[in-house]
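4.2 Preliminary Data

To establish feasibility before requesting continued support, the project team ran the inverse folding procedure on a target of 424 residues. The structure was first converted into the token representation described in Section 3, and no sequence information of any kind was made available to the design step. The complete token record follows.
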């Protein structure tokens, strides 16, 4: 039986023989370019952008070049196993679709398309708190596929409780609480366009569909003095009308939507988080709880003390702090600190199969895709996400085999050249 990678190559090359080339480019730079060309300016700014001068984004990518792979020969790699065990489940591939908010900016079917593509391949889809569809609809789209819910920790505990209860009711397998976004980073591309999708009613479907959110009362001073009148301005209402009509479920009149956005703005950020509060959050759910955004081994250890079931090493794809350390450089330190007690996952900069090999070799149990799958979604909806998953799986499989390794299990630092390089 030819390897998974070879089967995908054959599929692509045989389509080429009859003049058909892939609508979703295989090469990661060409994929990004094609998506960039298709995205509207504000959507492109939100998806492609990072914090400040975007040095963290660049650092994330550059870090992968510091860990070159060393191929080994004559090791019989004819039978390969790409599966991983994660939170008691066997996954066919060592990657997941990570949480990305406001996917409607990339494609109308947004989270539904991504969830369905993930489910078809058996990999988990992590629904963002800032999803474009309510988590219940995403659960339906993912069917019997694995799914996790990513939580942003609102300043209102009752809303957090409600989100968790909804995730439990709709059979999410785990909750990932993102710790690095207590406030939004200084996102220069969005700021230059004066554009924040949430203010236009986008990416707040989980709030609009929540019974507790509906009843929240917020004080006027929690909202921000300038936004209050401007959300009610005619131009803003016209845009909200458009968004409201395009929503799934019951349409919301623009003024009601404007009020909901006001409430959202008052409660979405929370800067008073602490490890004590994390321990209390842990108690709120029977689902496995993972923390996302960990970069320091001490934070990982303290999170473990709070009873978390997994750690995601991530700097949010460079969207939060400019001039920060590359996430990949922190992975071995955090993995060492965690010492195998819980799985350590990784994201921020994964673009190719070789990137996945490197992250796994440095201690990740699996990795999360971010922008990479959003580019596929942009170009071809569900089929585009599927193409990204299939191509990445094939690329990973071939890189693993050609490096002289048979299985994800046992991938360790020996597949990488020593760092810093040793001069033999
Ligand atoms: C457009 C966009 C929206 C995102 N939204 C969320 C989100 O709602 N919740 C979250 O935890 N992370 C979010 N992230 C961060 C991703 O989960 C992930 O950490 C990041 O994309 C990894 O970097 P990469 O895309 O460069 O690989 C978002 C990232 C992007 C690009």
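Position-by-position output of the design step:
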């Amino acid at each position: 039986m030819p390897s998974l990678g070879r089967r995908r190559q054959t599929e692509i090359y045989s389509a080429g023989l009859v003049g058909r080339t892939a609508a979703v480019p295989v090469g990661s730079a060409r994929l990004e370019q094609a998506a960039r060309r298709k995205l509207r300016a504000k959507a492109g700014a939100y998806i492609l952008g990072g914090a400040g001068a975007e040095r963290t984004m660049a650092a994330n990518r550059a870090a992968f070049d510091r860990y070159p792979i060393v191929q080994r020969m004559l090791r019989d790699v004819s039978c390969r196993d790409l599966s991983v065990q994660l939170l008691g489940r066997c996954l066919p591939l060592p990657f997941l679709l990570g949480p990305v908010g406001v996917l409607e900016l990339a494609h109308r079917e947004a989270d539904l398309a991504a969830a369905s593509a993930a489910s078809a391949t058996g990999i988990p889809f992590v629904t963002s708190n800032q999803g474009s569809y309510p988590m219940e609809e995403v659960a339906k789209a993912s069917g019997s596929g694995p799914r996790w819910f990513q939580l942003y920790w609102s300043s209102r505990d009752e809303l957090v409780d409600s989100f968790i209860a909804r995730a439990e009711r709709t059979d999410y397998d785990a909750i990932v609480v993102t710790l690095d976004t207590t406030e939004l980073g200084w996102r220069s591309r969005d700021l230059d366009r004066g554009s924040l999708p949430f203010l236009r009613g986008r990416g707040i479907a989980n709030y609009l569909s929540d019974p507790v959110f509906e009843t929240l009362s917020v004080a006027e001073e929690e909202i921000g003095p300038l936004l209050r009148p401007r959300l009610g301005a005619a131009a803003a209402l016209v845009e909200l009308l458009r968004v409201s009509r395009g929503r799934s479920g019951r349409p919301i009149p623009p003024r009601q939507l404007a009020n909901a956005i006001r409430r959202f703005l008052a409660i979405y950020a929370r800067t008073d988080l602490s490890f004590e509060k994390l321990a209390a959050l842990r108690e709120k759910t029977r689902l496995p709880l993972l923390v996302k955004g960990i970069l320091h081994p001490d934070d990982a250890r303290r999170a473990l003390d709070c009873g978390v079931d997994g750690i995601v090493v991530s700097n949010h794809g460079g969207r939060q702090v400019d001039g920060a350390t590359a996430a990949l450089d922190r992975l071995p330190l955090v993995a060492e600190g965690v010492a195998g007690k819980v799985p350590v996952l990784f994201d921020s900069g994964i673009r190719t199969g070789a990137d996945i090999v490197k992250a796994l070799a440095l201690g990740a149990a699996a990795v999360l895709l971010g922008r990479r799958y959003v580019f596929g979604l942009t170009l071809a909806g569900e089929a585009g996400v599927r193409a990204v998953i299939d191509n990445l799986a094939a690329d990973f499989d071939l890189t693993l085999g050609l490096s002289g390794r048979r299985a994800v299990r046992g991938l360790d630092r020996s597949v990488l050249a020593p760092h810093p390089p040793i001069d033999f």
